[in-house]
Amino acid sequence: MTVLGKRGYGKTTFANAIIEQVKGKKPIIIFDVLGEYEGDYIFTNHDDFVNFGIDNGIKNKIYVTRFDSDDDNIDLFNTLANLNGLYIVIEESDMFCKPSFIEPDFASIIKYGRHNNLNYLAISRRAAEIHKHVIAQSHYAVSFRQSLPLDVDTLVKFGFSEEIKTLQVFEYEMIEI
Ligand SMILES: Nc1ncnc2c1ncn2[C@@H]1O[C@H](COP(=O)(O)OP(=O)(O)OP(=O)(O)O)[C@@H](O)[C@H]1O
Ligand SMILES: [Mg+2]
């Protein structure tokens, strides 16, 4: 799933509602780059996450990662791309992709995720600032209000209505991709 829309319109709150649904059914890994999420375990670097996983296994718990280093986040994409059955939440996903670039292991998760039973929830404000594959490979796309024409056009091409320009705060449109 991809969740988009203006600052403060409800993306993280929506993501938490989805996490609540998935909780206990799959391991949930959250790229919590802004330190906003709650979980069973919090990790501040990739090695700690890996060592914890080796010692304890990956259970149906919520694993929150708050890494300072970009390299650690990139390593985490690599680690997760080689696992299966996970639910992966990526806050501020525009940190890991641009319209013309995507971290290779983020791309693997997106591309082969259905095959490995890896589900993702990617969050970003602007539709036009992330790689199109993120939206295209989602089962569902959700948009809160969008104001810039480029973002509206991008989403209209995916099947959203022009009404996304006029949504009120906390209102969203969801489409099946
Ligand atoms: N449906 C809702 N009903 C009531 N309050 C809400 C709802 N959704 C979000 N809020 C509140 O609005 C504020 C902003 O919501 P949230 O953090 O989810 O926005 P966001 O889109 O993730 O913002 P940002 O782009 O800054 O990350 C929060 O204080 C949240 O508790
Ligand atoms: Mg947010």
Topology overview:
Layout: E1 2-4, H1 11-22, E2 28-31, E3 41-43, H2 46-56, E4 62-65, H3 70-81, E5 87-90, E6 97-98, E7 101-102, H4 104-116, E8 119-124, H5 132-136, E9 140-143, H6 149-158, E10 173-176
Parallel strand pairs: 1-8, 1-9, 2-4, 2-5, 3-4, 5-8
Antiparallel strand pairs: 6-7, 9-10
Helix pairs in contact: 3-4
The structure holds adenosine-5'-triphosphate and magnesium ion.
Adenosine-5'-triphosphate binds next to helix 1.
- Report the bound ligands by name, code or SMILES: adenosine-5'-triphosphate, magnesium ion
End-to-end gap: 9 Å
- Count up the domains: 1
The portion of residues forming beta strands comes to: 15-25%
Order of helices and strands: EHEEHEHEEEHEHEHE
Count of DSSP-assigned helices: 6
* Corresponding CATH architecture: 3-Layer(aba) Sandwich
Q: Which secondary-structure class do the elements indicate? A: alpha/beta
| Chain oligomer state | single chain
Low-confidence stretches: none
Instruction: Please state how the strands of the largest beta sheet are arranged side by side.
Output: 3-4-2-5-8-1-9-10
Overall number of strands: 10
Overall average pLDDT: 97
What is the CATH superfamily? P-loop containing nucleotide triphosphate hydrolases
Provide the CATH top-level class.
Alpha Beta
Features:
alpha/beta; 10 strands; binds adenosine-5'-triphosphate; binds magnesium ion; Rossmann fold; 6 helices; 177 residues; globular
